[in-house]
Fold LysM domain-containing protein.
Amino acid sequence: MSIERFPPNSRYNGVATAEMAGPDGEKIVYLRRRFVPDPSTLVPVGEVQVQGGDRLDRLAATNLGDPIQYWRIADGNGAQVPSELERPGDSLRLTLPASLGGGFPNRGNGA
């Protein structure tokens, strides 16, 4: 059994795997824990203000070009519960890991 590679836009891309033996000796491959980065280590590339009805996947689609990247917004704002970032009026940081550098183009509402 193996774990398929995660796509580049997945929060699990690049997370290491480990193995253990099951009760019958069968090799079990599992994903190691993903540690959420300290937001201060991320490179700010923009900011967006939450409007009524906004969801993180929609904000990611509009501002980062990919709804699956919603987890980058959560990471950049230190959220353990992403839905807490959907309060109208809140200002959210848009960030990238320092290793990526660069930034995303401005794709809309305030970034």
Observations:
- The chain has two domains: 1-35, 39-97.
- The CA atoms of residues 62 and 107 lie 6 Å apart.
- Confidence is low (pLDDT under 50) at residues 104-111.
